[in-house]
Design a protein that fits this description.
Strand content: 25-35%
CATH superfamily of the largest domain: RNA polymerase II/Efflux pump adaptor protein, barrel-sandwich hybrid domain
CATH class of the largest domain: Mainly Beta
CATH topology of the largest domain: OB fold (Dihydrolipoamide Acetyltransferase, E2P)
Shape: elongated
Mean pLDDT: 82
Structural class: alpha+beta
Number of domains: 3
Number of strands: 25
Radius of gyration: 54 Å
CATH architecture of the largest domain: Beta Barrel
Helix content: 40-55%
Largest sheet: 9 strands, antiparallel
């Protein structure tokens, strides 16, 4: 009985241990398959290289000839015929481009009328201007004379009118009062003599004295009135003289009269005459443009029936591809980065050519790099679209660089960390925000946020979250 109990206990222990081992192995296996697998690396240091792919490529010759009308046309013309094709050979004197000049004669006639009218306008301006200057001078001189005459005038000395109605009226009143005063004064003297001889009563003497005092008061009032009116007129005339002088100075100084100036009219006339000369030059010289040199026609950016206003390059005639160079179009960023002397690779077939930037030029408003290379004569001028140019630029040395695969957003990465878990040491990820600098298609400079000692996750087999437990593939 005792033996059976021991046997049962031993078997039970074996079963229990087996079950525990089974569940342990099973849980670890499930945990392994359920836990995200990641790959992590330490940041590296070094250079970040950038491959710059340049734009469209064409052959370029420093002694090439631009075909264009070298001035802006007063009125655009329509291209009626382009006599050549790109890459075709031309001889000096061959016709290149013809324009529709049917409206030139009408434009010239209209412009002749405008020039005639503008000359008449200029003559009329001169006549009106001179007449106004003379009138202002006369009027100013007249007011100055009247001002000086009034300034010198006085009521006592005014024996005759001074041609100022307000003052002349007071002068006439003063004359009347003076006569009254004199006659009253004489009458008073006679009355006093009669009074002394007892022939005149005293009351009559007093009446005459009162009358004389009243006349004297009126004379004083006339003097004050005359002086006030005089000062008022002087003030008005000063203002008028200043006004006329100001207008005279303005017209003479600015040359502006009736809202127009002689300079502006003359400039408009000069512009019209220049347009006339340009139109006649176009009619005589530019209705059909001919090749000035022998050579090969380059790209033609215009087509028949296009409108052309002058200055823009119609085409370029080059002496051929022997001894020439290449030009590659640049965008704004490339134009800022690239410098003379940069090495480049020219791909136009199986064997790439090595080239070097020797300068920069601007054509038709676009920026180009001028590239020099040996054996350019082996390139096919008819297959410019098959030529590509790339430049590998080595940037500065950076202390902290990460592969672009480490970024799950433009400025965030996962840092691999260790912690103590249920089964012992385990790995987990922590979201880290970083400040990035320069970069290319493979790598990016880290300015701040990650150190050289950190382990940064570069790949993961499923979505991660901050603090999530992870495993290394071989763990």
């Amino acid at each position: 009985m005792l033996v059976d109990k021991k046997k049962i206990a031993r078997n039970s222990a074996i079963v229990f241990i087996s079950i525990m081992v089974f569940f342990t192995l099973t849980s670890r296996t499930i945990q392994y398959f359920m836990t995200p697998k990641v790959v992590a690396v330490q940041p590296e240091s070094g250079y970040i290289k950038e491959t710059i792919q340049l734009g469209s490529v064409d052959f370029y010759y420093e002694d090439s000839t631009e075909i264009k009308i070298p001035e802006r046309l007063p009125q655009p013309m329509s291209i009626t015929k382009i006599h050549v094709l790109p890459n075709s050979e031309v001889k000096k004197g061959d016709e290149l481009v013809s324009f529709d000049g049917s409206n030139l004669d009408e434009n010239i006639r209209n412009l002749e009328k405008q020039i005639f009218n503008k000359k008449v306008e200029l003559q009329e301006y001169d006549r009106s201007y001179n007449e106004r200057i003379e009138a202002l001078n006369r009027e100013t001189e007249d007011y100055v004379k009247r001002y000086e005459k009034i300034e010198k005038s006085s009521l006592e000395k005014a024996l005759k009118p001074i041609n100022e109605p307000q003052l002349d009226q007071i002068i006439n009143e003063m004359k009347t009062l003076s006569q009254q005063y004199t006659s009253t004064e004489e009458e008073l003297e006679k009355s006093r003599a009669l009074y002394e001889s007892m022939s005149m009563p005293l009351s009559e003497i007093k009446r005459l004295e009162e009358s004389l005092n009243e006349i004297s008061d009126k004379i004083d009032e006339a003097r004050r009135k005359f002086e006030d009116e005089k000062q008022s007129l002087l003030s008005q005339y000063r203002e008028k003289i200043d006004e006329l002088s100001g207008e005279l100075d303005y017209i003479k100084g600015s040359d502006i009269f009736n809202g127009r100036s002689r300079i502006s009219i003359s400039m408009e006339l000069e512009d019209m005459e220049k347009d006339m000369a340009d139109m006649r030059k176009i009619k005589d010289s530019y209705l059909t443009i001919k090749a000035p040199v022998d050579g090969i026609v380059g790209n033609i950016p215009f087509k028949e029936k296009d409108s052309y206003g002058g200055m823009d390059v119609l085409m370029i005639i080059s002496p051929g591809n022997s001894g020439g160079k290449l030009i590659a179009e640049l965008d704004e960023k490339q134009a800022e980065k690239l410098k003379e002397g940069f090495e480049c690779e020219i791909n136009a077939g199986r064997q790439p050519l090595s080239g070097r930037i020797t300068g920069f030029t601007k054509l038709e408003g676009k920026q180009y790099a001028v590239i020099e290379a040996e054996e350019l004569d082996k390139l096919d001028t008819d297959n410019k679209d098959g030529i590509s140019i790339s430049i590998e630029q080595t940037g500065e040395y950076y202390n902290t660089i990460l592969p672009n695969s480490a970024f799950f957003t433009p400025d965030k990465v996962y840092i691999l960390k260790e912690r103590q878990g249920f089964w012992g040491k385990e790995y987990y990820v922590q979201v880290q925000e970083v400040q990035v600098g320069e970069g290319n298609e493979q790598k990016t400079q880290i300015v701040n946020g990650v150190s050289r000692m950190d382990m940064v996750v570069t790949s993961w087999d499923r979505e991660l979250r901050d603090g999530a437990r992870v495993m290394m593939p071989l763990e």
